[in-house]
Specification:
There is one protein chain. The chain is mainly α. It has a single domain, classed as Rhodopsin 7-helix transmembrane proteins (Rhopdopsin 7-helix transmembrane proteins). Helices cover about 75% and strands about 0% of the residues. The chain contains 10 helices and no strands. Helix 6 runs antiparallel to helix 7 and helix 7 packs antiparallel against helix 8. The protein starts with 7 loop residues before the first helix and ends in a 14-residue tail after the last helix. About 35% of the residues are buried.
């Protein structure tokens, strides 16, 4: 098994870049997530699907914030693989995928509320949302604990893969953990935007609400793509380098992964902005989503009663 050496000057530059990104993310992320917890746990009176997803998202983002100082430390120093390493590993590689999956669930929930409005009462409920989140938490925690055991030989230092032996389990994680959710989020967001654009506005106020809703869905989609895509694309590039055995490219690819990881990890701060205001704004749209639902029901020529606003994304 071939190992490749690291460029110490490059690693020092990456540490400086991490400090520049992570210090404001950490400083802003803590109060923003505390405020979000307060809003979604205490301020809101009713339990909805969105509220369940948001609380789980804030939990995942808070754990990611906790891991950031350790990521800087592990990059700066050659920390051995020990209990601390495995603890941070499990926290980091459980909560980043969980954040991605919860954002995916939020997009699916919006889509169901519009695409299948007459079945939404059956398909959606806070209890079902909580059950899905619980299942994902258990699955990801078990996977994060088992993942290191399937590696042929762990690296010498924490969170550093020094060999160029291809890891096909890593490829599976990249595809299932991001690229499939990415396709789902894009599809659901586009469908929601199409519905909102088809809506015939009957008043300037309604037009303004429609534009706000389109803006929120569009911004959420863009943040998701911009934050996570570079990181997972560079992980794919690392897999390709391992398959090709290109040791000369490994140092640059490692640096790209660590830089793109900073962007991906900053999402734990941006989520507090995007989804707090998303939930706040969607509460102002009681006349918007029912109209989309009515359009869908008319197309289906259904005689069933319309769902209440409580069934739709808040």
């Amino acid at each position: 098994m071939k190992n490749c050496t690291e460029d110490d000057m490059l690693q020092n530059g990456i540490v400086l870049f991490q400090l520049i990104i992570y210090i404001p993310v950490f400083s802003l992320g803590i109060p923003l997530n505390v405020i979000a917890f307060w809003v979604f746990c205490c301020k809101l009176k009713r339990w909805t699907e969105t509220r369940v997803y948001m609380i789980n998202l804030m939990v995942a983002d808070s754990f990611l914030l906790f891991a950031l100082p350790f990521l800087i430390y592990f990059t700066k120093y050659n920390h051995p693989i020990d209990k601390l390493c495995y603890t941070v590993w499990n926290i980091y590689f459980t909560n980043m995928p969980m954040s991605i999956l919860i954002i995916t669930l939020i997009a699916i929930d919006r889509y169901i509320a519009i695409k299948f409005p007459l079945k939404a009462k059956i398909l959606r409920s806070p209890l079902k949302s909580a059950s899905i989140c619980g299942f994902l938490w258990v699955t990801l925690i078990i996977y994060s604990f088992l993942y290191p055991k399937f590696q042929e030989k762990p690296g010498q230092f924490c969170l550093r893969k020094q060999s160029i032996q291809p890891n096909y389990l890593s490829l599976f994680s990249i595809i299932v953990g991001y690229f499939i959710p990415l396709g789902i989020v894009i599809f659901c967001s586009v469908q929601v935007i199409k519905c909102l654009k088809k809506k015939m506005a009957t008043s300037p106020h309604e037009t303004k609400l429609m534009q706000k809703a389109i803006h929120i869905v569009s911004v959420n989609l863009c943040v998701f793509i911009v934050c996570f895509s570079p990181f997972y694309i560079t992980l794919l590039l690392r897999f390709a380098v391992d398959v090709a055995g290109a040791c000369s490219l490994l140092s640059e690819v490692r640096a790209s992964i660590q830089i793109c990881a900073c962007l991906a990890n900053s999402n734990c701060c941006l989520d507090a902005f995007c989804y707090y205001f998303a939930a706040k704004e969607f509460q102002e749209f009681p006349s918007l989503f029912p109209t989309c639902i009515s359009m869908r029901s008319t197309m289906n020529q259904s005689q069933e009663s319309q769902p209440t606003t409580d069934q739709v994304m808040t």
